[in-house]
């Protein structure tokens, strides 16, 4: 699934056994989670995935803020908390296990303390939409990454995936298409504008 030169790059990244953080960034539906899993498979026992989506604000808080209809936008995450966790992961002590949150699509909520990161795990893969933004707390992310890969795929395929994903988790087809057009694609434009800050582009085949 991953071409050989990407695997070589990953192996070089973790060759000395020291903690490294790789960021995977891209628009919704680009295949970031799929690539993260492929990296785990390529580096068995040497990598862990810590998704940015674990820092989604809870639905009740999004309702309070009036942002529930824009869930997934940059201001619907605890960006300061995410940056703080990345800082902890860079400086992790040899006797410390750090717990990271995850996001459960079946309940559409983050779950705290779900991902244990052991101190002897050399590679932390963090994937999400806004790793390369240059404003707010997000601007602190890039300096905490050893590398950032922009994950890209054919836009039509990406939108098709998103509609299918939203339908899988409860929306009818019209609602799914409206959400993709009015929310996901608005976010995708912003994410695409950060592409130049990545170290390389990982292009999925169409």
Automatic annotation (TrEMBL):
Keywords: Kinase, Transferase
Kinase in keyword set: yes
Superkingdom, taxonomy of origin: Bacteria
Gene3D superfamilies: P-loop containing nucleotide triphosphate hydrolases
An example Gene Ontology molecular-function term: kinase activity
Phosphoribulokinase/uridine kinase domain mapped to chain residues: 21-203
Xref: InterPro entries: P-loop_NTPase (IPR027417), PRK/URK (IPR006083)
Coiled-coil ranges per UniProt: none
Protein name: Nucleoside/nucleotide kinase family protein
């Amino acid at each position: 699934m991953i071409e050989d030169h990407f695997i070589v790059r990953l192996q070089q990244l973790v060759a000395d056994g020291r903690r490294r953080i790789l960021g995977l960034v891209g628009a919704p539906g680009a295949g970031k989670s799929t690539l993260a899993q492929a990296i785990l498979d390529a580096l068995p026992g040497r990598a862990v995935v810590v998704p940015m989506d674990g820092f989604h604000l809870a639905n009740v808080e999004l309702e309070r803020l009036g942002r529930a209809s824009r869930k997934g936008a940059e201001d619907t995450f605890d960006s300061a908390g995410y940056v703080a966790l990345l800082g902890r992961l860079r400086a992790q002590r040899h006797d410390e296990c750090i717990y990271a949150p995850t996001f459960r699509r079946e309940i559409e909520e983050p779950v705290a303390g779900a991902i244990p990161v052991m101190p002897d795990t050399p590679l932390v893969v963090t994937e999400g939409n806004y790793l390369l933004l240059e404003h707010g707390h997000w601007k602190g992310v890039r300096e905490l990454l050893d590398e950032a890969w922009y994950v890209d795929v054919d836009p039509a395929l990406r939108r098709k995936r998103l509609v299918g994903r939203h339908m899988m988790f409860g929306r009818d087809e019209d609602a799914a298409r409206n959400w993709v057009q009015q929310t996901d694609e608005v976010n995708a434009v912003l994410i695409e504008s950060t592409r130049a800050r990545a170290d390389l582009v990982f292009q999925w085949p169409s």
